[in-house]
Write a structure and sequence with these properties.
The complex is a heterodimer of chains A (321) and B (247). With 321 residues, chain A is of the alpha/beta class. Chain A is 26% helix and 27% strand. Chain B has 247 residues and is α/β, with parallel strands linked by helices. Chain B has a nine-stranded mixed beta sheet with strand order 11-10-9-12-8-1-6-7-13, with helices on both faces. A two-stranded antiparallel sheet of chain B has the order 2-5. Chain B has a two-stranded antiparallel sheet with strand order 3-4. The chains are: A alpha/beta (321), B alpha/beta (247).
Chain lengths: 321, 247
Amino acid sequence: MSVLIFTEHSEDSIKKSSLESISYGVALAAKLNTEAISLVIGNTNANLALLGEYGIKKVFHANHAGINLSDTRQLTNIICDEAIKQHADVIIFSNTITAKGIAPRVSVRLKSGLVTGVVGLPDLTNGFTVKKNVFSGKAFSEISIATEKKVLTLNPNCFEIHKTGGLAEVISIQTDVKESGIKVTSVNKIEGEIPLAEAEKVVSAGRGLKGPENWGMVEELAKLLGAATACSRPVSDSDWRPHHEHVGQTGLSIAPNLYIAIGISGAIQHLAGVNRSKTIVVINKDPEAPFFKAADYGIVGDAFEVVPKIISAIKELKNAG
Amino acid sequence: MKILVCISRTPDTTAKIAFTENNTKFATDGVQWIINPYDEWYALVRAIELKEKDPTITLHLITVGDSECDPIIRKALALGGDEAIRVNTANTDAYFISSQIAKIAKEGSYDLIMTGKETIDHNGSSIGPMIAELMDLPFVGLATKLDITSTSGSISREIEGGEEMLEVAFPFVISCQKGMAEARIPNMRGIMAARTKPLNVSEPIAADTLTNNIAFELPPAKSGVRLIPAETPELLVKILKEEAKVI
């Protein structure tokens, strides 16, 4: 028996969302009286033995020629092979772009029930039930998994990372992969930006900012806070900001610790994508803006006056601290 | 060239989310039903655009659900497409639904199977990759652009922290999101034409349900907003630092 955690990485480090999944998997393994193991695919400079600090005893690393990380079939083959070899009862992913393409395939291949976007540890008192977000963040659903093996994807920012100490044993594995039918012709990485889905802090702005030329202060505030930038749907529809910044029901659904909304009225569709944020700050000149009802803190005022003052207050705080 | 677009019926984005029967069922009273926006705006409209460029393309739509789905299928046909298939069964979990679609898709020998990136009710984002796995096909998720030749598709898709351009030979499954196409409104000619387009009802095959929805729950309500005077925004910074401890 084991709990297998598919662990994602960038070139130099393990992704924060994967460390959350590892902590989740280690906690679940303890509940199930079994061990948590990690599976890493592809080349990375990260020291995988250090995953032991998070409670992992063994890291299986597939890093051989012929692996195409954009090919969900290949990744599914590697994960399922190892899951079978290691007798994995639960396979855990972070609910990331990569995992969204693989976890459902793994579920089909192993005929194991899948729940995507889970927000907490399962309840094992009566079978295996787990809570997930539904209706784009407007509700939760309790799902029971009927099969012996289970596949879960954990939403980012839902589970705290725990460090326990120790080193993991890193074991190289080799799986036969079929030649990939997917050819990557080019990749554009946006350098320096914090990925929105994983961001702990997000500064977001809407039509109240009147035009794309006024985003300087949003970017400055985000940079000061180490936050990602986001926007409302009308802003991305008008091409003031790139599409990937659109949060809301038909954009990205996020759950950062801090969400600052500037000049966004708070339509129900927008709230659906952000209402899982732990602390919500709304800055809007309209006191009737529906967003205030969903906020923890609010300022009724002109963003062009308020935001620069917030920026200088944070600068002062940084200089003082 | 044959394209199959998978569509799902979901509550309107403004629908009030409430539950009945001891929080086990979604309260459908007064709810307007729509085509899942990702399926309609991105997958379906892009498929229609491809067919407008190349009228020899055959474009079929499929949904899994009971006859209550018929109005949204007619609306989809009013936007475009040649005919629709409805698998006549209550939709249960993603594995069951994908099994139904994969069976029809295999029989129809489609070159391209398109879905939205997820539905706005279950937020599972599972149907596309499950169909692909059941048919042993490549899957490309979160596509923002798709152009095709007679043998392959060139795709842009979102990846963590950027985008990736891919070439994939047919057949394959793709899930679509913003950027693919612009939302359209059906015109009168489309609506009239849709009335006579075939809507084939197909009976389901036996397939397992791997997961069950036990109960729903609404998130706890916020305790109320604390307003900070616009003259002293520095107070907000102090509160976020010292009380909320988020900066």
